[in-house]
Design brief:
The protein has 236 residues and is mainly beta. Helix content is 8%, strand content 44%. The radius of gyration is 27 Å and the shape is elongated.
Length: 236
């Protein structure tokens, strides 16, 4: 009985040791697979340095803006893939990082579509009532080429450039009370970020462009609130 117990104990320890080394094909050879990582970048002012690629938390080289990198002989199972140091005027249009399951069959794939927009730091945004009501304009630094971005019968004030120069936040009373909006520097892609019966004004971006601070009287007196750049996660 004592000898049988020893055999069982040794077998259990051997099983644990094999599992800790990864899966095998039953002959003691570890099973591996292949992962292909792809970047697809479109837009303007593409990142000239490409993107550092991190595999399972460790940097594994740099990918070009449109590139394919193949990892062979990866242990089967889940792996984390991430692009880092993406330029401030570019945005990854997918989960980043991504979790990918590698097996012994066909290669697994992780695709990172990236959109870049030209940063327009060479223009000045301002509010003006030159057409009879307040609008948001942009112009060249010497005052030439003014362009009306909002062109609305409502009053639009307090423009604020995003840190990457791709969006302008401002306040407008076009829905009957003052709300915070964002717009592209060419006047397209207007989005309302707040939707409340209070008076929201004076937007200001965080240095990394992920948050917007503003004033509001929604709780009965003037307070400072912050929210994500898409209007979510509002906090007083």
């Amino acid at each position: 009985m004592r000898k049988l117990a020893s055999v069982v104990l040794v077998t259990a320890c051997l099983s644990v040791a094999l599992m800790s080394c990864g899966e095998d094909d039953g002959t003691g050879v570890e099973v591996t697979g292949t992962l292909e990582v792809m970047t697809l970048t479109v837009g303007d002012t593409l990142d000239p340095d490409g993107y550092p690629l991190n595999l399972d938390g460790a940097t594994s080289g740099t990918m070009e803006v449109n590139d394919v990198v193949t990892f062979s002989d990866l242990a089967v199972g889940s792996h984390s893939v991430e692009l880092s140091d993406v330029a401030v005027n570019c945005r990854v249009e997918a989960s980043n990082p991504q979790t990918v399951t590698v097996d012994a069959g066909p290669p697994a794939h992780a695709v990172f579509p990236v959109i870049c927009r030209a940063a327009l730091f060479d223009r000045i945004a301002f509010a003006c009532n030159r057409d009879g009501n307040w609008e948001i304009y942009v112009m060249d630094p010497d005052g030439s080429n003014p362009v009306n971005l909002t062109d609305n019968l409502a009053r639009d004030w307090y423009p604020a450039w995003s840190p990457d120069g791709t969006r302008i936040a401002f306040m407008s009373d076009r829905d009957g009370n003052s709300e915070i909006y964002v717009i592209d520097p060419d006047g397209s892609n207007l989005v309302r970020l707040t939707n409340h019966g209070a008076w929201d004004d004076s937007p200001a971006w965080s240095p990394d462009g992920t948050r917007i601070a503003f004033q509001t009287d929604r709780d009965g007196n003037r307070e400072i609130y912050v929210m994500d750049a898409d209007g979510s996660n509002l906090n007083r």
